[in-house]
Amino acid sequence: MLPGEDTEFAFELRACRWAERAWEPARDDSVVVVARQLGIRDRRWDTLVLECDPAGLRQRARFGLDALDSDLLHVVRHAPEDWTYYRDALPHPGYPWRYVREALHRAADRGVVETRKTGNRIECRRRWPYPDWCRRIVAIENKPDLDASAADALVTQLEYDVALSLADEAWVATRATDGAVEPVLLEDLPVEAGIVTLETADTGGVATGSVAWHARSLAVTDPGTRILERPDGDAFDASAARFEYVDSAWKAAKRREIAERAYARGWRSYVETMRPDCRHYRPRADGAVLPWCDAKSRCQTAGECSGACPEFEPEPPAWRTRGWPIEGGPGAATKRLLARRRRRRRPGMDEVE
Ligand code: SF4
């Protein structure tokens, strides 16, 4: 293990890289897209694995790398083939039409639908049909050190995931140790959740994974239950759990939004919130592209690598003007490298720009 690699952040990057290389989708022909740190209002997942239809993914690329939010999805999914008054073409969204008009203009500005004015009426038509490109969503919680107290904390999160069933599978990824995963930990977690152990030491920087417990498929097309509040387990806490039902249509819409954000973000976007323009920042060419700080002589976390870091030093202007190693200096080169890798995982993306 590299110095500084014992953090949850470094483990998460390893887990994402492992999933990108080794995840076995339910259908052999699915393409895997991995993202990290995204979710819904009251639940954020560490790693998301999307199993995608290859043809659909290629068609999705025509809409650009940026995510389509819920308003834009409403427009692109229902935009008609031929010019039509927008209120006749799009189903009532459940909120005022003026927001639909705004979304329509944004969609036109992005070039994903066409609009025109006929008299006072705005008409629209689609440029391409929006594809059904994401087949399955797998949510992974990363816990490098799965001891009894970490497992306790996970139970609440995984019970939430299972009850809501927004993702097709829920998993825990943990670091492989010399011992087997304690059976008692397996007993505590919901049986529907899978456990995978990742080995990062002595494997040349590339994690290898082995499944300790297989996940069960969750009922994503059924209505789900959102757990809002639960008793804290204290002997004196006699409160009841609070929950609400969510219907299948809500879940389907949320899954589309999550897939869109995962498509746009990927897992390499961590560099956007770090300081690769610091002279001490160095990407390691060890497969996982873990960031490395020369000043600290270890992998740094995204939290500490900021302008507020006491050792931050901007890269010297000469690095940029001498074209080191390519134009823009090492910070810009790192961002370009990671962006290129993200695009490479999005079939068809290089053909649209
Ligand atoms: S900002 Fe701090 S942590 Fe980041 S590379 Fe520079 S010295 Fe290292």
Which short descriptors sum up this protein?
binds iron/sulfur cluster, 11 helices, 3-stranded antiparallel beta sheet, globular, 3 domains, 353 residues, DUF5787, Trna Endonuclease, Chain: A, domain 1, alpha+beta
Outline, from the CA principal axes?
globular
Note the run of SSEs as H and E. Answer: HEEHHEHHEEEHEHEEEEHEEHHH
Seen as an oligomer or otherwise, the chain set is: single chain
In the CATH hierarchy, what is the class of the largest domain? Alpha Beta
Mean pLDDT, all residues: 86
Widest beta sheet: strand line-up: 1-2-6-7-8-9
Give the domain tally.
3
Distance between the termini: 39 Å
| Major sheet size, sense and barrel closure | 6 strands, mixed
Question: CATH topology of the largest domain, what is it called?
Answer: Trna Endonuclease, Chain: A, domain 1
Instruction: Compute the number of helices.
Output: 11
**CATH architecture heading of the largest domain:** 3-Layer(aba) Sandwich
Portion of residues in helices?
Answer: 25-40%
Given helix and strand content, the structural type is alpha+beta
Strand elements, count? 13
Ligands present: iron/sulfur cluster
Radius of gyration: 23 Å
Strand content: 15-25%
